[in-house]
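User: Okay, second chain of the day. Same drill as before: sequence in, structure tokens out.
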Amino acid sequence: MNAADFISRARNLVFDNLLNPQFGVEMLAAELGISRSELYKRIKKFENKSASQFIREIRLEKALELLRTDSYSIGEIAYMVGFHSPTYFSTAFKEKYGYPPSISKQNSRILHRPKALGSKRKLVPFVVGSVAILVLAISAFAALGGTMSKSVSLSVDRSTTLKAYGLYTEARELVEQRKDSAFPIAVELLEKAIELDPSFAEAYAEMSFLYGQWHYYGSLKKAERDKMMRKYLDLAISLDSASPEVLLARADYQWKHRNFPEDSTEILYGFQSVLEMDPEHDRAHYRLYQARRAMGQYKISHSHLEKASELEPKNYFYKTILARDLFWKKNERDRAMNVIEEVIKKSDRPGGVYFKSMFLTESSKDGHVQAFKNFHKALKDFPFLYGYMYWNTYITLDLDLLPLAERYSRLIQIKYPENTFYTYGNAYNILIAEQRYDEAMDFTIIWNSNKGLDDDTAVANIAKAHYLKGNLEITKEILLKHFGQVFESMADGTHPKVSITSSKIRAAKTYIDILRELGENDMAQPLVDFICSYYSDFNLRGFFATKLDHLDCAYLQNDLEGFLLALRNGFFREGNRLGVYMVLKLSNYPAFENEPAYQELFREIEQETHRMRAQVIEYLKAEGNWDPVWDSSLELYNRDVVMKNSDLPRFN
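Assistant: Same drill. Structure tokens below.
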């Protein structure tokens, strides 16, 4: 067989199998009766491209032809030429032709007259024996100008109606909004898609993925999340365990229920398997960004984030996260601000507003004031949106505006009573800042018992509250009972750093304070060395929180001079003041609190914080949103804290 005949036969085989998204290099080689490596050699020799590229370009050529007819949507055409993902189709199309499929479709509308009403396609499934054959699939194949091959499976287990596919893609777009109000609508759409095609594996997979997102970004209970994720994942796997979307849902389930580092290899393999089948899968890239970051692999992690944003340029969630990382991790602040301005200009994502506001707190003298104003205005337009309430709680805590922080915190607890991330942390911090330690412990016990707060966080926070009350022996007993083995492995250097969590660090810091207060410095030092080493190795694990690592390390090493220098430079000179006053107020550095030099610097920082606070109060009064009761509560609170800090020394 000469070159022309070989290529012609190969093209015809690909064309005959366009409706089969699983038709790839292996299947083409089998149809041609040659090995995969031989196929690669011949395609490379005759066409100067890889076999996978050869197949993909044939699909795209037919897609271009269909786009010019103006008879089908872009999503429908993606399905008709064998792409699992409309996103991947659009990316591949633009890569080949230099412009997105939407441009081609727009041009076709100019060149073609509207179709007659009688030409609308009808979706009429009929049944032959036990296999439901979809007339749409046959008509779609006819639209491609081909004849059916025996290797094309048109049974409902791997084909679906374009209507079901359209519902599925619409649901995916809603899920990507990551809004509490969007998830139930997406569920309805997917249920309709499944009703149309009970064997639509990708729809079940999307349902599993959706429930995982709904808990984190909305009000879904964790127990409900786990049940529904498992239910729909099992159904998806039973229908098509090899589909990229099913593989993603499976890996996502493992990610949501992870136990690092034990599960890291399996989780990475899961998401990597998706990319092997669909290298342009944005969700897989984003999850690999998260997983690699958790493992401390920051360079490759960031490359996955950049790739996800590149693949989905209109996914403004990805751009928001990219801007966040550019600002705090890469210190590319100008680029970060440009990206976040694009998010605000081109989308209604709340993340654009609140991350720009966070950037302002680090970039200008009165950044906290502007950030608060941004959130206050945004909450008038979008009342009770979790992001705005959460971050304004954080800002008001950092401004020492506790009455307002309490207000936002209560609203979040009412609106999102099961969301640990958005609800528990700030509420606990407010109780600690107000020195209501018994309430902080009771609050933590309730969240641990009834609302899914993990044991490590609960024990670490209860121990911290006991310690701040002065109950050293009780604190030590609580910590050793729960974290004793962790402390031992930290001290001897055998604890895997990749499995360290913020709760373990918090517990270890409290334990170090106890040991030093009890004069057991030799026992404390190995723990200090481990934590500072961890900070050095995993210095990009979070976003802005890691900027406090150098303060923690100087404190743990009992280096008062170095601590004060880093604190002063960070707050007053380097534009890193977000969260600083709050951590001081929460008694994160108790061993230094009676040092005159520490107290002097604390007063300077507090004076600057209260200067910004006064501007916020003036703004709220002008807006008619200030409660006069808050004046007296702020005065009483500040007076009580001054008395307690001066009259109750903790260290001798």
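The chain is about 70% helix and 0% strand.

User: Thanks, on to the next one.
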